[in-house]
């Protein structure tokens, strides 16, 4: 079974981002499934309320 479209998109964005970082001698980044999951959950929460705001520090996990 193939990768999901969102997984492929995430990997392509990461590749492009790391290529740009390489041009500036910055170390490559890697995907964090926990960070991605938490960010998606928070984005969905913001979308449901239609209010853009920062999360509270206590609601953030440790990455």
Q: Total number of β-strand segments?
A: 0
Largest beta-sheet details: none
Low-confidence region ranges: none
Radius of gyration: 15 Å
Give average pLDDT, whole number.
Answer: 89
Order of helices and strands: HH
The separation of the N and C termini measures 30 Å
SS content category: mainly alpha
The percentage helix is: 55-70%
Number of helices: 2
What's the shape? extended
How large a portion of the residues is in β-strands, by DSSP E? under 5%
What does this molecule look like?
- With 63 residues, the chain is mainly alpha-helical.
- The protein has a domain at 9-46.
- It is 57% helix and 0% strand.
- It is built from two helices and no strands.
- The protein has helices at residues 5-23, 33-49.
- It starts with a helix and ends in a 14-residue tail after the last helix.
- The model has no long low-confidence stretch (mean pLDDT 89).
Condensed summary:
The protein is an all-alpha fold and 63 residues long. The chain has two helices and no strands.
Question: Which tags fit this structure?
Answer:
63 residues, mainly alpha, 0% strand, CAP_dom, SCP domain-containing protein
Question: Topology, pairings included?
Answer:
Blueprint (H helix, E strand, L loop, with lengths): L4 H19 L9 H17 L14
């Amino acid at each position: 079974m193939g990768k999901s479209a969102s997984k492929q998109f995430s990997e392509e964005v990461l590749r492009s981002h790391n290529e740009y970082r390489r041009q500036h001698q910055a170390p490559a980044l890697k995907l964090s499934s926990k960070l991605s999951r938490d960010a998606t959950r928070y984005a969905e929460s913001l979308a449901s309320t239609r209010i853009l705001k920062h999360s509270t520090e206590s609601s953030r996990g440790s990455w």
